[in-house]
Amino acid sequence: MLRLWGRLSSINVRKVVWAAQELGITLQRTDAGGQFGIVRESAYLQRNPNGLVPLIEDDETGVVLWESNPIVRYLCAQHSMGDLYPEALPERFAAEQWMDWQQTTLNPAGRDAFVQWIRTPAAQRNDALIAASVAATEPLLALLDAHLARQPFVAGDRFTMADIPVGCEIHRWWGLPHARGAHPHLEQWYNTVSSRPGARGLLDQPLS
Predict the structure, then answer these.
(1) CA-wise closest residue to 98 among 151, 38, 28
(2) What is the pLDDT of residue 192?
(3) What's the pTM?
(4) Residue 207 domain-assigned?
(5) Vertex 191: Cα angle to 190 and 195 (nearest 5)
(6) Domain count, the chain
(7) Distance CA 100, CA 154 (A)
(8) Tell me, what's the pLDDT at 90?
(9) Cα distances (angstroms) measured from residue 182 to each of 170, 179, 185
(10) Interatomic CA distance for residues 167 and 171, integer angstroms
């Protein structure tokens, strides 16, 4: 049994659920964070001192982890070595590279637009923050589109762990109420990964 704490409205929780569904892992998920609370309770903070979601406990191995991309890596390494978790070092670190790019570059660029459009009442929105976020994100999508013009998936010729966090980020960005730029290779890739059975119930849901 894999235990997961986190609400599905969180992009980082969606990554973990998608990985688990790809791998056919039995998942026991508890809503946490946001309106559900739990994350500031002492028992939770002992396991995740950041007080954020997601958090997993793997009953099989005794592993406790927080931080979404390492959790995705862990699950894929444990259950899909050589497939979702590439074994050859060039492919593995290409996947690692793009997973880190999602977390450190693409996500921060788009965060303000998401928070303002989706989680801020209309009367309180900061249009300057939205504009700056869009201006920061669109060149990154062009970069990703050019990358996907050369290969069908983020890390190479097949679906790997790298496609999960990037796919969740694109789902969030394209769910915002703004005109979508022309990124044909990115769109083709997203249509492919979002139609996978493992993405059901995640990339077909509205943002909240």
Answers:
(1) 151
(2) 98
(3) 0.97
(4) no
(5) 110
(6) 2
(7) 12
(8) 97
(9) 14, 10, 9
(10) 6
Same structural domain, 22 and 55: yes
Q: How far, in Å, CA of 120 to CA of 113, rounded?
A: 10
Closest CA to 148 of 178, 105, 113, 193: 193
DSSP 8-state symbol, 62: -
CA–CA separation, 207 and 9 (whole Å): 7
93 and 193, same domain (yes or no):
yes
CA 21/CA 130 separation, integer angstroms = 33
Query: Which residue has 């980020």 as its token pair?
Result: 169
Q: Greatest CA separation found in the chain?
A: 51
Give the tokens for residue 4: 């997961």
Name the packing angle between helices 163-174 and 184-194 (round to 10°): 110
Q: Which residues lie below 8 Å from residue 187, measured CB to CB, with a gap of 6+? A: none
Q: How far apart are CA 136 and CA 131, in angstroms?
A: 9
pLDDT for the residue 1:
86
Q: Is position 84 within any domain?
A: no
Residues 19-64 pLDDT 10s: 999 999 999 999 999 999 999 999 999 999 999 999 999 999 999 9
Sheet holding 55-58, edge to edge: 27-30, 2-5, 55-58, 64-66
> Is residue 12 located within the same domain as residue 96?
no
Q: Give the type of residue at 119.
A: R
pLDDT higher than 90, residue 85:
yes
Do the bridges between strand 2-5 and strand 55-58 make them parallel or antiparallel, or are there none, so unpaired? antiparallel
- Output the six-digit token pair for 97: 């590279």
